[in-house]
Amino acid sequence: MEIFIEESKEHLQHMNGILLELEDEPNNLVHLKEIFRIAHTIKGMSGTMGFTKVADITHEMENVLDLVRNSEIKVTTYIIDVLFECFDTLDGYIVNLENTGEEGDIDSSELVAKLRYLVKNKVAPTEGDVVLEEEKNEETSEKKVAIDNEGFVIELDGTHKTVIKEAIRTGNNVFKIKVVVEDSCLLRAARAFIVFNTLEQFGEVIESYPIAEEIEDEKFDKFFEVVYITKLDEKTIKNELMNISEIENVIVAFVELEDEPTETVIEIPKEEKIDETKSVEKLTKKSNKKANKKTDKKVKPKTAKTVRVDIDRLDNLMNLVSELIIIKTRLEDQDSIESKANMNEAIEYLERITTSLHDAVMKVRMVPVERTFNRFPRMVRDLSKDLGKGIKLVMSGEETEVDRTVIDEIGDPLIHLIRNSIDHGIESPEERVAKNKPEMGIVALRAYPDGNTVVIEVEDDGNGIDAEKVAGKAVSKGLLTEAEVENMSEKELVNLLFLPGLSTAEVVTDLSGRGVGLDVVKSKIELLNGTVEVKTVLGKGSKFTIRLPLTLAIIQALMVNLAKEKYAIPLNNIKEITTINASTISMVQNQEVVLYRNNTLPLLRLDEILNVEKENEENREELIVVIVRKGESEAGFVVDSLIGQQEIVIKSLGKYINTSNKGAKSIAGATILGNGGVALIVDPNQLF
What we know:
This protein is α+β, with helices and mostly antiparallel strands. It has 23 helices and 22 strands. It has a six-stranded mixed sheet with strand order 14-18-19-17-16-15. A five-stranded mixed sheet has the order 6-8-9-11-10, with helices on one face. Strands 20-12-13-22-21 form a five-stranded mixed sheet, with no helix packed on it. A hairpin with a 2-residue loop joins strand 15 and strand 16 (591-596). The chain starts with a helix and ends in a 6-residue tail after the last strand.
């Protein structure tokens, strides 16, 4: 299941990208063949797993794509829209499988009807055409018939007849079933397993032809037969089995026995009845357990979070671990007489190895942002169609690598920012022409490394952000007073967009107007120890810049003392460390500030914010200040003393502390010190 879900996601991601390229180059046969190959691969995988809904959709896709690549159907916008619909449906099934272990109840009948219409008519439907019709059963309705073994190979002996008679007496139906597989079926044994798996969910197989071992070893040609006891009727059974892909036909017939003299009936003990099913036992034992689990409870499959790693990176990791073992042995063999000099040398060597090991592990955890970026071209295509805007998405830096955990979390904030650019930023084609702009708007999505951070930018050439309009909305929503707004700079006004509940949209639509979006972006990114800032020029466009740490697991930090407690401040947030004279501190709007390098620097006393109990209340003249940067804002953290720079491993505080203690927001986690003590890691993004 894990492999199936992982590979299906990769194939669908690839399909999505090629469909977008096909839209630009509808006659590109290479793209068509690639989509056909992907559909065929997913069909094979899902068929083997027994996921019939996925297999059916991909089978119908194959039929359409086959006609397209043979030039019997011309690629049109309608066909591309239908193929995108196929992608969405398949994606929905895979998500359901990942979450619940089942395909779910997504209705794909209309989609299947569209695909079949294309195959039948070789042209897209026009207005008034009926696409979704009631299925007409052209076969004669199945009647109850007594079986005299005509048309079936399987025969019933006296023992079977006794079991069958007892089954009929207790209100069950008994059927002979012939299952015919398609000539093109490559995995006949796997197909047979799925048939048995399906049957065992609703009844009991008491005999098969050929025997179970031969079916399992694929020692049958086009068909196999079973004798089956169930409460279901023949039509339901046939429908269930015909839903399995690569099954050509299913023949279901009632078994009715003639009355026999009662004295010839031999009552069979339960043990003997069980013996009769041994022939199919091997094949169905596993499926029985699965079926029972399935009916009792929906079991969510455990899907692994995987990272594909270059073998060279693993080789490097292995070499470093070998070095670690060597230095461990060296430390164990230290002679007490010559220990001091050698010990220092060994420790320095150990430090080099652990730093290299950290870098190597970081690289193993790194994945390209392409994994997240790939979902956006399709989203932009759909939104530009819905809004009637011409929008081109330009992506760069997809190969930039980010920590695996960051990749999982960054998707939603980027969706909000891109939707924001398309809906609020880019003007309508008419407005753009009136402003002497190109009719086609551009949204740029860029990623690039910058020191020990990764920068992701979302930029558009739209109308930009009207600071006055934002201020007006903030006041009308009661988020700020007019007096507060008047004292703000243009940059501060624009940053009001990140306030919860603020939206500049005049009308509530599916896309915007509910005041949910940019505040979610900010909180999500700050949760990742990152920052987000916005630059805008009215009439020219806007640019949102996200800065994220390369990794969330191991960081460089400055260790500081607050009274008797030790705290860690992430180094990538720190601009510089200085001392200031207490006499230079002023109070502005109940906030301590100091003039530092001709700029006003707000001062935050960490011991007060973190409720650290002070040892003495003496006022010091010289204060140690750690100047911290958050985007373009700066603040000075007042600390008691500095310990030094240290590489630390971040440990989560856990859900209980995070949810029960509001003060925990200012703490990013904890780390274990060399002496076994615990130091809390300050999160500067939450403090100002």
